[in-house]
Amino acid sequence: MSKIPKEYIIAVDAIVKASIKIMKVYNESFDVEIKSDGSPLTVADIESSKIIEAALQETQIPITGEETKKGDYEIRKTWNKSWCVDPLDGTKEFVNRNGEFAVNIALIEKQTPIFGLIASPVSEQILFGDKDLGVFTFSFDDAYIPSNWEKIKAKEIPNRPIGIVYSRSHSSGPMDEFIEEISAKYGEPTFVKKGSSLKFFDLALGKADVYPRFAPTMEWDIASGQAILNAIGGEVIHTETKKPLFYNKENLKNPSFIASTKAILNNSDVKL
Q: For residues 181 and 162, what is the distance between their CA atoms, to the nearest angstrom?
């Protein structure tokens, strides 16, 4: 493997430590607050955010995140690089104790995610993706031993039937229409319902082919997954413009999108 940039090593260390803190809270009793947007907030979100922010400050790269104070856009738009962080993606799943939550850290350059980390605190696994280094998976125990990281090679052929992974907590009418369209064209797909950015594990590892999302998301929900998928030959595109999602926008909400693997993109028989 080529030399890993220092800021990536800092991010890996931060995501491991934040995940360990999250699991400490998860295995105890905790209170749940409801934020102004109706989403839940726990001490795990707050403590994880503190750990990650403190670590990433060493990189001197500014941060945007779910629990981070949002900078004024007039300042943010001058940033060439920035971190995009979700310290606990899938708080609903955390509260429901189903294990399907994650921690996301992405590095944005010129509004494009170039590096992403997704950690599963429960399984103690990390997905690492960089446009130059490629995509790797490794355990928390191996986080500091890059020689033990497993490089992922993208599948060339999609699953048969096509595998669709989608949100456990958010569905919509357009999602039903999308499934009907896929079924009519290519036969009944298989489905995996999963919470948080863990869906990108399934895409990167070839267990699923497509992740359609028509319900609301924020930049920190998807940036790391997009960086990882891009690094392995996939894409995340706006359902209307058919262009990749971009980041550090004035409005930090994402549009509807479809995330597809390299196998789907390279298969001329499948057009989404």
A: 12
Distance CA 159, CA 20 (A): 34
Q: How many domains, in total, are found in the chain?
A: 2
Could you read off the pLDDT of 74-93 as tens digits, one per residue?
A: 999 999 999 999 999 999 99
DSSP lists the bridge partners of residue 254 as 217
**pTM score, whole prediction:** 0.95
* Distance, C-alpha 9 to centroid of its chain: 18
> Token pair 């509004």 is at which residue?
111
Instruction: Report the Cα 213 to chain-centroid distance in Å.
Output: 13
The domain that holds 235 is classified in CATH as 3.40.190.80
Q: Is residue 270 part of a domain?
A: no
Question: How far apart are alpha carbons 139 and 125 in whole angstroms?
Answer: 4
Residues 72 and 186 both lie in one domain: no
CA distance 213 to 165: 10
